[in-house]
Amino acid sequence: MNHNCCPEEPNLTTRDLVTLEQAEQISQLFKILANPTRLRIIHALIKQESLSVSVLAEQIEMKPQAVSNQLQKLISDHIVTTQRSGNFIYYRIKDDCTALLLQRAWCLVEDTELIAKSEKIGALD
């Protein structure tokens, strides 16, 4: 993985407002990531760094062909890359930003669940 996730990018509060083209690119990225199978593949690759289709399929409990189809989408969108070793192809995350994005999304889900529970308890008082 690339070990420098956007090292020189300024904070969002100091950046110019996102352009329409940039917003479309970000939206396309979120569409690619808005798939439970692809998210599980990404998480498995973050945890193990490099895996074959058969091991990935076993870990996420899916058929290798289905995993392979999702990997092709992730490759075509430059999220996952491959490395050949003999007769085997291993898949890995291309950029650390992917792991950071998944971590932040997971954090947001957990935070919003806590907030919703807190608001529900507050409404009962």
Automatic annotation (TrEMBL):
<feature type="domain" description="HTH arsR-type">
    <location>
        <begin position="18"/>
        <end position="113"/>
    </location>
</feature>
<dbReference type="InterPro" id="IPR036388">
    <property type="entry name" value="WH-like_DNA-bd_sf"/>
</dbReference>
<dbReference type="InterPro" id="IPR001845">
    <property type="entry name" value="HTH_ArsR_DNA-bd_dom"/>
</dbReference>
<protein>
    <recommendedName>
        <fullName>HTH arsR-type domain-containing protein</fullName>
    </recommendedName>
</protein>
<keyword id="KW-0804">Transcription</keyword>
<dbReference type="InterPro" id="IPR051011">
    <property type="entry name" value="Metal_resp_trans_reg"/>
</dbReference>
<dbReference type="InterPro" id="IPR036390">
    <property type="entry name" value="WH_DNA-bd_sf"/>
</dbReference>
<dbReference type="InterPro" id="IPR011991">
    <property type="entry name" value="ArsR-like_HTH"/>
</dbReference>
<dbReference type="GO" id="GO:0003700">
    <property type="term" value="F:DNA-binding transcription factor activity"/>
</dbReference>
<dbReference type="Pfam" id="PF12840">
    <property type="entry name" value="HTH_20"/>
</dbReference>
<keyword id="KW-0238">DNA-binding</keyword>
<dbReference type="GO" id="GO:0003677">
    <property type="term" value="F:DNA binding"/>
</dbReference>
<keyword id="KW-0805">Transcription regulation</keyword>
